[in-house]
């Protein structure tokens, strides 16, 4: 707080950082940004020179995102051939950086750590690639990865990329049913997992979850399960083993040759699928490709974290999410970064773990989510101040809007006022940062993602689809393609066009609301569709509803988001039971329904509240009025607005009488 009691609203880049930054003034940012839009060929062509291309491109970019002009298609670096794994690993080894540390692995427990150099990573990537080849995996094959945050996770992703296989990493916190659904959609022959993992004090039997998934229908494509014996979490003699299908990593990978062929693939060859929730239906397989993704992930990493060779970088995200793809596996390695890979959770063994790790490895660039920042903030400053943290230069945040209190705490307590905060807005679909400060160039405002990255042309539309010029708010859209953008939804191009390009013709629709202020800064307001952002993770209301009605007692369910001090949003479910149930039903019913959601999706989708609803507020045409449910869930029933369109307005009174029951 300043002397007159007001909070500072704008923060200039720290002077030391700015003096050496890749982009060191707002003017320089603007010059580069303008060029990136006016002459994308020159701008991206120059950046792309930094990578290895087996064959150079003929055309930088070609796209149609206007469905009224024909099918949506997006292509970057047409005619080029390259390989992601070669650019992430081999290129650096060949340039003499083989001894450089790629990963400082820090296990769940404080005494567990190991180091992997670029040369060691290259060897391991080749060994895994050779194993996959020996099992018939080839260019274009799908591989499902269900691993915790051990170095073998990025290594397996890179092994797929090396041979042109398409990886689908499933976060190892999703349930057997979720995993099975993703396997059914991409039909891999190989699944890679571990015996188990410990997250904090909690052991999780990952192999057992894979076994359960593979017992479900639709998963018969899988003929091999490669199991890393993560004995410090769960030794292999505690794990069930299916002869002929299961193989222990330690038995079959280390014996493979440390050289493997590289599959040079076309620029638009698929690199990975990552399943994410939408407002309707099942999770969709967002498909990313090769050259544009590479250039996008690498360039944002370099500029947004202002990365240089002497940095130690650490992103707390799991590779099961896009943040772990672009900012653990790919972006940092394309830049030959040294990074911490952390298996555990920020609060184990206590809330000082992150800052102890920062001191242990002299982390200079740190990247996490607002939910983690808020929970550490709630634990008390003493967990932070027991560490020095003098190495920190850039502090990043991602996943949901960050409230100004948490932003200031991150800046002042964690960063000691010496580091720059970068609030990075982007999505699974965008592949890389879209709206974000550059730490040496763009003054930050707490709560704003600030200005667009190079090549990104955002706009804000009003209800009628008209662009809002100057200050104002509405729907956040993007006006042209950018290199790392998704290319389709795997197996469902129609859904891709429908979801992202048919909402407003000629624009990519983000699903977020946003406000632009008088300085042109963008403030993300959150989702405008039926997606709930729990601790930075996207959960579709439709998915939770379908999990609930999957239980034999549940006739109907309606799920809405409610604001939460630490998690950002939580899941609030209104549930109608079958037949002549009495309300409230016995406590076991609530437990059974919650267990059902955890089984169908995973613990991250656990509803915070189940609110019994003998009936739901509906219009005469039978449409659930979610607006009313949101108000009731948020205890704002004094602002219900017009309820006269309800088929039966008395439903509201009944709902209110059952609150907390
Ligand atoms: C949604 C995308 C991108 C990696 C993590 C989440 C929200 C993301 C921010 C931010 C405000 C943010 C948006 C977006 N979001 N970053 N800095 N400020 N909101 O990826 O699961 O694809 O979710 O997360 O609502 O649409 P995701």
TrEMBL record:
Pfam families reported in the protein's UniProt record: ACAS_N (PF16177), AMP-binding (PF00501), AMP-binding_C (PF13193)
Keyword NADP: no
Domain AMP-binding enzyme C-terminal: start-end pairs: 543-623
BP term (GO), one: acetyl-CoA biosynthetic process from acetate
Record's keyword annotation contains Nucleotide-binding: yes
InterPro entries: Ac_CoA_lig, ACAS_N, AMP-bd_C, AMP-bd_C_sf, AMP-dep_synth/lig_dom, ANL_N_sf
Alphabetical keyword list: ATP-binding, Ligase, Nucleotide-binding
Gene Ontology MF annotations: acetate-CoA ligase activity; AMP binding; ATP binding
Domain AMP-dependent synthetase/ligase: 96-481
EC number: 6.2.1.1
Segments forming domain Acetyl-coenzyme A synthetase N-terminal: 29-88
Family: Belongs to the ATP-dependent AMP-binding enzyme family.
NCBIfam families xref list: Ac_CoA_lig_AcsA, PRK00174.1
Full protein name: acetate--CoA ligase
Organism (species): Auxenochlorella protothecoides
